[in-house]
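Example 3.
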Amino acid sequence: MQNYASEDRYIKELDPKKHEIALSTEDLHVFYGTSEAIHGVSLPFERFKITALIGASGSGKSTYLRSLNRMNDNIEGTRVDGKIMYRDIDINGKGVNVYEMRKHIGMVFQRPNPFSKSIYDNITFAPKRNGIKNKKVLDELVETTLKQAALWDQVKDQLDQSALALSGGQQQRLCIARAIAMKPDILLLDEPASALDPISTSTVEDTLLSLKDHYTIIIVTHNMQQAGRISDYTAFFHLGNVLEYDITSNVFQRPKIQATEDYVSGRFG
Amino acid sequence: MNDEIKEKLLKKSRATRSEFRGRIISFVCTAIIVTVVVSIFYFVASKGLATFFSNKVNLWDFLSKTIWNPGSTDSHGSPQAGALPMIVGSFAVTILSAVIATPFAIATAVFMTEISPNKGYKILQPVTELLVGIPSVVYGFIGLSVVVPFVRHTFGGTGFGILAGTFVLFVMILPTVTSMSVDALRAVPRYYREASLALGATRWQTIYKVVLRSSAPGLATAVVFGMSRAFGEALAVQMVIGNAALLPHNLVSPASTLTSVLTMGMGNTVMGSAANNALWSLALLLLLMSLVFNLVINKIAKRGKF
Amino acid sequence: MDSKKWDKIATGVLYFIAGVMILILAFLLIFILWNGLPHVSWHFLTSPAKSFQSGGGIGIQLFNSFYLLILSMLISIPISIGAGIYLSEYAKKNWLTNLVRTSIDILSSLPSIVVGLFGFLVFSISAGLGFSILSGALALTVFNLPLLTRNVEESLRSISGSQREAGLALGLSKWETVLKIIIPEALPGIITGMILGAGRVFGEAAALIYTAGQSAPPLDFTNWNPFYIASPLNPLRPAETLAVHIWKINSEGIMPDASQVSAGASAVLIIAVLIFNFGARYVGNHIYRKMTGTK
Ligand SMILES: Nc1ncnc2c1ncn2[C@@H]1O[C@H](COP(=O)(O)OP(=O)(O)O)[C@@H](O)[C@H]1O
Ligand SMILES: [Mg+2]
């Protein structure tokens, strides 16, 4: 397996006194069967900031992101070693209520995946299952989340229509609204704009920037302009390792690692 | 606030409980099915083996003797349970009907996939589905009122017998074999055909040498599946075969199959008697044959994956 | 030249054989409907059968068929959904799953007479249910379970995994996700399969002759208390169905108008099967369109 000596990487330390850490991993390894896809990644994620995960296709960004809320549990033969610290708990440990944890660490996927239900039901489905029955509260929830996701104006008159009739960009924003309706702490997004056209992409980006005040966001993207535009921190993934982690401007303008420079200047990947 | 969330993260919740319940419910449902299958084997075997262990019928005699009269005993004092007539009857109708149905079914499937894949397929697809759906007693009734008189007039005899059974089973398995053959032919990748045509082969050469050959395992599965259906069919066959537990001398003399004897006999014997046990032995044989067909199908299917 | 002629002949032969297939169906349908429909009247559909004289109907048998159908579907639908969920959502790749799949394969290929005899032995005799609706419904359940289960499993599998991830990522349990999101989406396929299964059950006779029995005692349609002996709802009474009736009167030969009654009953059976077949397609498509909002 590929291993890098410590001088080959640069992982910025975040001083816990100055930066509030919402989530962090310690020496995280992920295995698909016997093949190791993530080789020990340790990263902090600061609260109310956007952290971008960049790197070539197949470098392990999705695998890493999906282990943060243990979505990989559902793939047979997957094993995740190491710690994922959230509120002083190792949520990768035994005895953690995964379902409860996922309410606080929500996720938006690469392909929009709204339920084939109405727009209204898409958002209220999970809150209802969690005991919110009051119609007024639910109505309000739908309105605020759709506004936060910049979708309210377009769909407010068709809330009872099927979500599948929306355009791809609208569906993705509905998925974001659906995720934040659970009032999570942390929002994980896996290339949320990769299946969208440029206009929808920029709407989604605006949505994310406006969400930053209330959510800690971790976003996978292979679009470097996008990472540069919206993120505060960037982690560069290469063959299952993080080679560089720093504030975004440093990663793009003054990378400390050769491989990072090659990648961000487009020489490979 | 913070501590409350932390606590919840370490405690069971509604979702945990629902997941636990769901796992149990779905597992129990599955276990019910497996239990049913296991108990079918257990009960049928324990009854069917009694003929050999309690009533001391020799297994070889059971399979090779031709006198079926398990209510009375032979000179050695064991019941006269010679099942050969029924075994021959079952295999005869199964093999004959499969022999006639196979070319028909494959030809129709070729028609549906290679010759007229749009219009022909659209018409024949629902036709086969409807034919599959017709209940077997209806086939039996038509056999009784059309096939038996037809056989009687054309070939003589009473009309009841292997031939009438074959005709009825032919019509019954034809749609099943056809629709499975269609699936097999459709599974042949399109580029096989294109490559063959590009190499200058004619349409018929392509169908024969490429399409049929590469789908041979699937076609064989279809035929064996049809045979297993024919072998296990009870009422339709029983209605036209004549129900005489005699070794058939020709195709138009009354005969019987494992299923027909079971259908007729089970109600007329006393549970636990030698005559009744002998019937269960026939049922066991039927069960084992269906297992054999299943095994053959699995063997062929394993070989023929694209 | 020669190969062209060959092509023509071969194509012609295939057209001919395909035509034969259609003719067979047409013949069967026309024969049954032509001979049967003239006997089908309101009187025929509602009055009880007669043994040694002509003019009997199929009223009780028809009622029995529907009652058995409903009862067996009530038992088999929940079990097949549970097992289908297990196989599509929970089953790991191991020996246990292999055992389950093999069992279902074997069960689906068992001759229905064997299922009927098993039901006779276990439900009618060992469990003491005798020849009864309940015993018959259980036998039909055994007969129907493997196909229904496979249909549920396949329908669930056809729903994209991203829908499951969407539910899980919201903190729902897998079970809730399957029950409330995946099953509703798979409903068109599941329902189509259930209706087709119902059609199969409706025409089944071999599994019933030794479980539900071959007699149809008179029913008192004014008393629906299931514990009353002649109540139509009494699950412990013997209940000859329509399909069993057709077999019975043809093999006994004591009914003077057996062939007319059979033709009429077959016509009713065929029409029911046709309704089930087209109904399955129609309902499936209808739900699908309704759900996806397409026209
Ligand atoms: N379900 C899986 N099973 C086996 N290997 C996988 C699976 N998913 C991803 N991988 C492998 O893990 C590596 C990382 O993949 P991924 O995390 O999807 O990369 P990225 O998101 O950066 O493109 C790749 O080599 C990929 O082939
Ligand atoms: Mg990815």
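The interface with chain A takes residues 92-93, 160, 162-174, 176, 180-181, 184-185, 291-293 of chain C (CB under 8 Å). The domain at 40-292 of chain C is CATH 1.10.3720.10 (MetI-like fold).
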